[in-house]
Design brief:
Blueprint: H1 2-23, H2 37-54, H3 66-79, H4 81-84, H5 114-123, H6 139-151, H7 157-169
Helix pairs in contact: 3-6, 5-6
Length: about 180
């Protein structure tokens, strides 16, 4: 029985080594290729578990005043719009392909709690092009960005027109 267990363990180790050194380097790792269903599931599962396990449960402590929204918009435009678009539609300014795709925030990122969104903005997500901002920005600045993202579905006609005019003025944003 012990001999069979040793053979099984050696077999698993050999399979992992073959996978890592022979099969995985031949896979498509470019940002324009869609990963396999298994790879996508594993990545979503691990990322979701990581965020849920580590994100604070608090709601945004910054009240949605006109001044805070304006400051949030400024911070978002400066740090987030290059990838997520001025209007949150993920029309990035760099004209690049991202995989995983840049999340659309135009509906307010309601698929995440305030704490989860804060955690992601603060820490970033490795190997996705999402940087972390906590080391160079105050928590108030980050919460104001979240305030602006949550405001996207409620943009006034004037705010929407201003954003559209800015996008047109900048030569439009490249749709991904």
């Amino acid at each position: 029985m012990l001999k069979l267990l040793a053979i099984a363990v050696i077999g698993v180790v050999v399979a992992v080594i073959l996978l890592l050194f022979l099969i995985m380097p031949r896979m498509q790792w470019n940002a324009t290729a869609r990963p396999s269903a298994a790879e996508g599931w594993v990545a979503r599962y691990v990322l979701g578990k990581w965020v849920r396990s580590n994100a604070p449960s608090e709601s945004n402590p910054i009240p949605p005043t006109a001044e805070n929204l304006q400051e949030g918009e400024h911070e978002y435009d400066e740090h987030c719009a290059v990838c997520h678009g001025l209007d949150g539609t993920a029309h990035n300014r760099v004209g690049g392909d991202f995989y995983p795709p840049v999340p659309r925030l135009s509906k307010g990122a309601t698929f995440l709690s305030d704490g989860q969104l804060y955690f992601i903005v603060s820490n970033g997500i490795r190997m996705t092009a999402m940087p972390g901002f906590a080391t160079r920005h105050s928590s108030d600045e980050l919460w104001k960005i979240i305030l602006w993202v949550r405001h996207f579905p409620n943009l006034t006609a004037q705010e929407r027109a201003t954003i559209q005019a800015r996008m047109k003025e900048e030569g439009g944003e490249t749709e991904h």
